[in-house]
Amino acid sequence: HGRSLGAFRASDARAWYGAARDAYRALCATHDAVAIVGLSMGGALATTLGAEAARQAAAGAAGWRATSAVVLVAPFLEVSARGRFLTAI
Question: Taking CA atoms, which of 53, 56, 61, 75 is between 20 and 30 Å from 25?
């Protein structure tokens, strides 16, 4: 999120996801297998990026490959109200 409050205010989710996406595609260009690991908010980004990688690879998009693994460490993922209701039973 940035190392200072000023850096945090100057960044946004699109910038974070764009950086993760660019890094993933760069790794796909130089490696046969690429895994995605996300900690906390990075877990939400990793989940989204893993899904996008699978879709792009399945569509045959150049420069994309399906991820080898997605590892989430204490991910920040929100559960919908319906999901909370269903798991509370």
Answer: 75
Q: Where are the alpha helices (DSSP H) in the chain?
A: 5-10, 13-30, 41-58, 81-87
Q: In the chain, what is the greatest distance between 2 CA atoms, to the nearest angstrom?
A: 47
Nearest to 66 by CA among 20, 24, 37: 24
Rounded to two decimals, what is the model's pTM?
Answer: 0.78
Distance CA 31, CA 46 (A): 18
pLDDT (tens place) for every residue of the chain, 89 residues total: 567 878 777 888 888 899 999 999 999 999 999 999 999 888 989 999 999 999 999 999 999 999 999 999 988 777 778 877 877 76
Query: Would you tell me how many other CB atoms lie within 10 Å of the CB of residue 15?
Result: 11
Residue with tokens 């200072």: 4
Distance, in Å, from the CA atom of 14 to the CA atom of 30, rounded to the nearest integer, reads: 25
